[in-house]
Design brief:
Order of helices and strands: HHHHHHHHH
Number of domains: 1
Structural class: mainly alpha
Low-confidence stretches: none
Strand content: under 5%
Number of helices: 9
Helix content: 55-70%
């Protein structure tokens, strides 16, 4: 399910365009917002979250020992979809779905930190990086859970997918995102 490229499919079906030729060329929700169609952007966001939730909930019910492997698999499927020659999204929306499945408190913390960072900066990429970094820190210091390494790995992967955004942030050439 992680490999279903909802941003690509929705823009192809409803706008008759290839999202990879719009804005950043990414298939994720932020770039779907750049199409100018907010419904399309928020639909992509919702579907990218749901595509993590469904398999993780199923795995947690039937095979709870494999919950972290399942989560990582869905995430990697989004970043490297087999249908698009392994060129997918940055994984943030899918990560949000993973967080809400693994621990809803972490999901809420992510959303709050993302939104506060966005209100200050107007950069979706910076908001994603800050919110993703906060999760393993919070997990380690406040939850005393042995699985904090999973959240560190997820931060490293999201940092990796945002490396071009980080360069643009440093060079002050990153474009701001309008989410309303």
């Amino acid at each position: 399910m992680g490999s279903i490229p909802f941003g690509f499919l929705l823009t192809k079906i409803f706008l008759k365009k290839d999202i990879r030729k719009i804005g950043s060329g990414n298939i994720g929700a932020t770039n779907a917002l750049r199409t100018g169609n907010k419904i399309l952007g928020y639909s992509t966001l919702s579907l990218d979250i749901i595509k993590a939730v469904i398999p993780i909930l199923l795995i947690s019910f039937y095979f709870p020992d494999y919950i972290f492997i399942s989560s990582l698999s869905v995430f990697l499927g989004h970043i490297f979809p087999i249908w698009l020659k392994f060129k997918g999204g940055k994984g943030v929306a899918t990560y949000v779905g993973i967080l809400f499945c693994l621990n809803h408190i972490l999901g809420i913390i992510f959303v709050i930190v993302w939104y506060l960072t966005y209100l200050i900066s107007k950069f979706s990429s910076l908001s994603s990086l800050v919110a993703t970094l906060i999760i393993p820190i919070y997990q380690f210091y406040y939850m005393n859970d042995q699985n904090y390494y999973f959240y560190v790995i997820m931060f490293i992967l999201i940092f990796f997918t945002h490396r071009e955004n980080i360069k643009r942030l440093i060079n002050k050439t990153e474009s701001k995102t309008k989410i309303y």
